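Provenance and format

Records in this collection were gathered into a single text stream. Each protein contributes a sequence line and a token line. The two records reproduced below are adjacent in the stream.
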Amino acid sequence: MTRTISILGATGSIGASALDLIRRERGKWRVVALTANGNAEQLAKLAREFDAEIAVVAHEDALPALREGLSGTAIETAGGAAALVEVASRPVDITIAAIVGCAGLAPTMAAIEQGKTVALANKEALVSAGDVMTAAVVRTGATLLPVDSEHNAIFQCLQGGKIEDVRWITLTASGGPFREWSQDQLEAATPKQAVAHPNWDMGAKISVDSATMMNKGLEFIEAHHLFPVGLDRLRIIVHPQSIIHSMVEYRDGSTLAQLGPSDMRVPIASTLAWPARMDTPCAPLDLASIGNLSFQATDEQRFPATRLAREAAEAGGAAPAVLNAANEIAVAAFLDGQIKFTQISAIVARMLESALPPAPASLDEVLGVDEAARRQTRELLVSA
């Protein structure tokens, strides 16, 4: 049976991986919508290849180029934030929500409102608006499937188990490119060094988050919303090989771990085929050649981001949204050469120490908290 799909963020790494899988089983899918931030040329190419019904760019100034790229076709085109929300509202069997940043919040919520399946790859959705979005999932009866390799691993390890039987959920972290660096080395780290992740091929922002360990902190908050076992039953461990993607320990002492290659097509395939399985082109694990799997405790002296995220989750309310917004602005400043690597977490810490706004009760209020936190963080950067 042919299934319908929309991919929000089709030209990014998640979108590209998802389309690679769909390309291999083309007859099983009908692509309804593809969106991109501003890469009109690539979006037009993909829309033609997959015969999408509509292609949307977030930046309206890229719309003329998109229309030109799709001239002579029957593919509908649109541009702007409102168009992203509208296209996400179109009913499909599954929506992959992979728009980076808070720009993805409103489209993700629009997809959830359809009450269908949403494969979530947008961290900000649950970090900044976790309470609001999980309430919408319950209200609409939507199915939320995690795309992040760690959360997808947990999801798989929980199949056949009961959440009340869970003793621990353990998120694994590669430790990033600076895992063995001294404090002095971290002070001098460059953007080029920070984006050179040893295991994963990711964008600049998420690569820096991995280097600071904030990526794992954000995933800690996500896991809190996806798997309600309580914050005291969530923990992080460094696993440099990135072979075990996460683990679930049950009260009888059994620990289930999901292993796989460092390739996002594995967790994406899990969501596309759920509750069944599908083939991927990923090479099977060769554990004998890997040799050893090692683990280390997190070092929150050198990498305080995981502690900051845990404290934000414990505080609840607006704190996670402030954490996320401050981190995005600080990471951008580091990539632009405005601040040092170690100042990223320091700036986030200062924002969490400031007076926080009331807990947001709607998506509009979440976006208001986000905007205010970004503005305040930029003000901090002026004096940094």
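Adjacent record:
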Amino acid sequence: MSRLDSLNFDNTYTRLPTNFYRRVMPTPIKKPHHVHWNTALANSLGIELPVDDLQLLIDASTGNALLPGSDPIAMKYTGHQFGIFNPELGDGRGLLLGEIIDPQQQRWDIHLKGAGQTPYSRQGDGRAVLRSTIREYLCSEAMHGLGIPTTRALNISGSREPVYRERVETAATLLRLAKTHIRFGHFEYFASIRDNNGLEALANYTIDQLFPEYGDARDKHELLLKAAIERTARLIAQWQSIGFCHGVMNTDNMSIAGDTFDYGPFAFLDDFKADYICNHSDYQGRYAFNQQPGIGFWNTRCLASAMAPLIGAKKSEDLLACYEPAFHQQIQKELSAKLGLALHEEQDNLLIRDLLQLLHSQKVDYTIFFRQLCDFHSEDDPGKVRDLFPDRNLFDKWARRYTHRLLRENIAADARQQAMRTKNPLYILRNYMLQQAIDEAEKGDFAMIDTLLTMVRSPFTGQEEMERYAGFPPDWGKHMEISCSS
């Protein structure tokens, strides 16, 4: 195990040309205090936190000290925000402290969010608030518990220093861990300034770090784009299957590694509403739940356009054809597993489509429906799931088709049901839970963060002390719209 003052740093990004980034020292937060340490993540990275390291953690995660070996930089990128290209982007409130190598020789970026102003802050204060750090900290762990590719967070530190958003809040910082912080917007930046040398250097660096198996291939840049397209498609299929709404799918929020990145106004579905908008700033519904697959394709088109100087316009355009089959293969796999269908039949897509339309029209809770479906035997013995539908006759019609389809599966009912329980979570991180944790934390009580971490790390397994979180959300907590401001 390594202590914080002896992490194995190897900061390869700082060896790239200086127009890739600017060196920036974090701005210290006044009178910082400890909020939470992610022991599970730290253990997996081989990091221990002895009692005498706590002050170093607080100082290093709030800009009051540097971890030995770190070399803070603000990365430059651009991107499309709500469909409009913005050239004035970059790390405006976060710094890449460096890259650490864990005992398994896996490389991790370690990034300080809320680090203060940078050359890319665009008149912003460069700060994060306690509300947003708690949301990212918990949701990244929830996604990891669900088996969905994601960044993670190592700790939260707080302060009483005021930060002005829609109301006065308090400053906080987050140490984020990721395979990479390279976004689609990094490629868009070099394409926008017509710096083909920089674009090639970025692509080669990305391959070296994430896809070394492509390094000697003559078509390595094509392979990189294809991998990014397919990973993005599969990721969004996983989001859709679990009922996750990202909220701000700008291209500067899309990871080249295909991981869930930049948690802002996200939400998990309550009552199934196909066109649910979780971001109250998304006035046109660009990033509504049912728009996410199409926006994922739109974003990969932006990436393909940016990489065209390396690949050729026609080839980069042709590679976009990889997106749709990758998405449909993954979403079919995910939803079939949620329904307990191990065999594929041509009519399964129609069965799934009609189910989703039924959930939408009947306003049925998405997570609770699929979990209760795990107890379904037949149309004559459906279990509690039938009671979720105001019009039970509509459910009965679908259940009759589902029963006939299950008869063609070569698996016993109890084995199917057990398999379904590994794909349909009992617990989901609903926004009302997060709001309760935030309310308590703003009073100085961080206990609910621990409670929710315990819940989301085992979302498929019943936990007696978590029973209250497996039920319906309160009326005030349904369909909450979340602000972008943080």
